[in-house]
Amino acid sequence: MPTNFTVVPVEDNEVGKSTLEGVFREEDDKDSPGQLQYSVDDTPRERCPFINITDHDPDDYYDGKNMALFEEEMESNPMVSSLINKLANYTNLTQGVTEHEEYDNEDGATKVRVKSPQMGTFIGVYLPCMQNILGVILFLRLTWIVGTAGILESFAIVVMCCTCTMLTAISMSAIATNGVVPAGGSYYMISRSLGPEFGGAVGLCFYLGTTFAGSMYILGTIEILLTYIVPNAAVFVTQNKEDKSEVLLNNMRVYGTCCLALMALVVFVGVKYVNKLSLVFLSCVVLSIMAIYAGVIKTIIEPPDFPICLLGNRSLQSQNFKCIKAELSELFCNSTNVSSTCDEYFKLNNVTELQGIPGLLSGVIKDNLWSDYGPSGMLVEKKSQPSIPVQDNKIDFNLPYVSNDISTFFTMIVGIYFPSVTGIMAGSNRSGDLRDAQRSIPTGTILAIATTSFLYMTCVVLFGACIEGVVLRDKFGDSVKKNLVIGTLAWPSQWVIVIGSFFSCCGAGLQSLTGAPRLLQAIAHDRIVPFLQVFGHGKSNGEPTWALLLTVGICEIGILIASLDAVAPILSMFFLMCYLFVNLACAVQTLLGTPNWRPRFRFYHWTLSFLGMSLCLSLMFICSWYYALVAMCIAGCIYKYIEYRGAEKEWGDGIRGLSLNAARYALIRLEEAPPHTKNWRPQLLVLLKLDSDLGVKHPRLLSLTTQLKAGKGLTIVSSVLEGTYMSLGAQAKTAEQNVKAAMHSERTKGFCHVVASSNLRDGFSHLIQSAGLGGMKHNTVLMAWPGGWKQAEETYPWKNFIETVRETTSAHQALLVAKNIDKFPGNQDRLGEGTIDVWWIVHDGGLLMLLPFLLRQHKVWRKCKMRIFSVAQMDDNSIQMKKDLQMFLYQLRLNAEVEVVEMHGSDISAFTYEKTLVMEQRSQMLKQMQLSRNEREREIQSITDESRISIKRKNPPGAESGAQQIHDRNTKSPSNPDNKATLSPEHHMTWTKDKLIAERNRQRGEQNLGVKDLFNMKPEWGSLNQSNVRRMHTAVKLNEVVVKKSQGAQLVLLNMPGPPKNKGGDENYMEFLEVLMDGLERVLLVRGGGREVITIYS
């Protein structure tokens, strides 16, 4: 609907003027000298990023002087009056070589004045489209197509192809009127609508199509020259009819190469000569078409005299003989004697003379309704003419019969005809030359297609109604004295068609050699294909010299093919692919409904675009399925190359919008229900630590992420800066760039997010809670073990770590903690023989089983074997437990060695008590006193020394402590004769019911005695927290077993115990974990998220 604007004048006064100018001067001198520039009279000017706005424009001033309320916005945003003035004066340079005129301004400086575009719809769009659509196929092949395919099938082919181009024109009109289309035409439309990958692929295909079109027009030019104008100019000549086609191809190659070189020279010298000749070429096309229709009308009154000779029903070449059987005997008999041997078919059939152009009212249309396909070498026959067949169907090709030079079938005919409807992009390619492109392009293009469609449809019917069928199927006019078949119908002379078609093909070839290099230059200027950048350079006036050389080289390939019928299907593929993606672009933009999709052309719908796209795809496979596959492979390779090596471009294309819509739809679907166990995979939130330079401190954490994910699933790499976002915004962006660079070097595919928070604790908490979107959220947190937590000056590192553990547990998320992360292998390393040891102590969802399997998918860990250790308690049957575990792994489809390790519950040693005592006293002292780092270390060392002296005092040399006696009693040698039933530690113990009861009774008495003696000997131990003693005992003994079994393993995975509910024991928890991992090089602590992540079911 129309929008009304009201311009409100604001009075200018001196106060407002001085105020505004003062503000500008202050801001410019103080803050941003680059934002505003001043002219000679110190009037501030804006530097606006809009199109065609330069700093040298003397009108580039702030028009309003009383807008002090918006003075801050004026620094970055122009006033409406200034903006409207710039947009109203916007001009787009033409796509060809635009002639510039120089003039001197008032100051004497030389400026360049660009001619304003003055072309209207008729001159700028309609006539160029007509000239490009009507061409070589109309003059050289349309009569042959009608005779071979018949009127009905030919009419269907024309309707199908014209419908395809009409639907494409509708889609193109919508895209072309949705903004300005600069250089590149269809390439620009597709690339800005579907993205650089699609745009580059289709743009190069369109370039190849345009180049091969130049080859086709040149071949048409040479065919007209050598066949109809100067047939005696052939370089290669043969009298053997079987070699005639090969000789013709060689002549086409020689003359085609010379013609190509001449045309390339004309284009190189200057396009302005081509533009000046274009009107002449267009006049030739118009006059030729008028001559055709005039000739059709004349056949009603007086048909032209072009007799043809038939032997039986076979068409004969028109040579220097009369259509009398006696005169033909020289050709069909070995001599003129009565007793001579003659061709059997010649002897059985009579000679008939017919008019080749019987006229519109002759009724010949009935004979031409149906198709007459056949193999190469098949004779051209009039089916309705009576003849006597012969038993021997062998044909002597030296006889003057007219025959097919190629095999004919429907799909081949479609491929040859389709280039005759291309050229619909001529108007959109000239958008810069048009006075009103958004109105001229749709109107001119659609009218041109409608006009040419009408011409083609009427020509199909008129040719079939006026010309004899055997003449229509005579491709080179052999039966009508070597005349151009369509020329025999023309009036006043056949030379009007011959000369007109010759110059028409010449002009179309020059236009192709002019447009193709500029299309390649536009692609090169976008820098989306790195190896094409050299073709963006040219002469000083912008002529694409290097692109022209490449175009000539590719065009020469088509010339060497030498057959117009073989080249036509090739360029049909490339044009059809281009049209397919134009329709796809319109359909995608329409369905997405992006706010920027506001074309002025309203007569479009996504269903029409989809129909046009489907029709283009169908025509590709109808023309030639193998050419279609080759064209798609070429486009696919270009697409993948641009995606892999091309420059990243953000053009607001529809594919990106489609991806956003698809992502939104998928996220909404994921939100409906949690993922099933079979679909569960670790979606990682990686918590990184940054160094003082905002670089990644542990890059191997990203390597582990890559090895664990292998590019699949969600990965969010994040870090926290301590402070406010207002003060750390720039640092956060720098850190994010550094993290992205580290991710790229470590080949980690995922997202990066660096946040600023008042403290690290809250920052990590917010990331754990809010990272991800909808159903695409992380379920696992990966972080490094705080290795220097004991030596840290502050306590917050290990406190933040423990709080992170608590929050992941509360959020039901899995947690992975890597110790000695810097010693983990990089992505370039290849671990040889080794093992990944899993210590499965408690079942927390099966994540321990899944992680080694995922790691072994990566080439770093691929050669490592998986071993699973499980700990058996006193009540467990270790042999049965091992069998059950092996069966469980078999059902999980995991290959691993299984070992069950037995641990007794009574072997608490003096070392454990001492370790616990030191830990508790240290923890208590740190809570009561705020010590410096050095004082704290000295205090801890003194406590340790006192504890050791106390042990020595209570236990003189040669005596054992009570705890040691208990420990030795519980771990006495298996060779003791009093305990013959005890198994060797190298074997697994199997507990029976009787053994279990006897062992429990014995240990109860020993524990009571041991503990009583223990407290009598060491008063300090009596005050220990027995929970801490048990925890420390578990950590010590489990560490001993793990070190013994897995010290040489490449990686050890351990169940991570949960932190204490009482926060007062946080430091003790860190000590427990430190003892548990002591002596192991690479450890990955694993804590499940509270749900099953692995299943035995399919």
UniProtKB/TrEMBL annotation:
Q: What ranges does the record list as Polar residues composition bias?
A: 972-982
> Which reaction(s) does the protein catalyse, per the Swiss-Prot or TrEMBL entry?
K(+)(in) + chloride(in) = K(+)(out) + chloride(out)
Which InterPro entries does the entry mention? AA-permease/SLC12A_dom, KCL_cotranspt, SLC12_C, SLC12A_fam
> What are the protein's GO molecular function terms?
symporter activity
Keyword field: Cell membrane, Chloride, Glycoprotein, Ion transport, Membrane, Phosphoprotein, Potassium, Potassium transport, Symport, Transmembrane, Transmembrane helix, Transport
According to the entry, every stretch annotated as the SLC12A transporter C-terminal domain falls at: 699-815, 816-954, 1030-1098
Name the GO cellular-component terms.
Answer: plasma membrane
Keyword flag Ubl conjugation: no
Segments for region (Disordered) = 928-990
- List the biased-composition ranges (Basic and acidic residues): 933-949
Where is this protein found? Cell membrane
Q: Which domain of life is it from?
A: Eukaryota
Its Gene Ontology biological processes? potassium ion transport
Q: Which family does it belong to?
A: Belongs to the SLC12A transporter family. K/Cl co-transporter subfamily.
- Protein name (database record): Solute carrier family 12 member 7-like
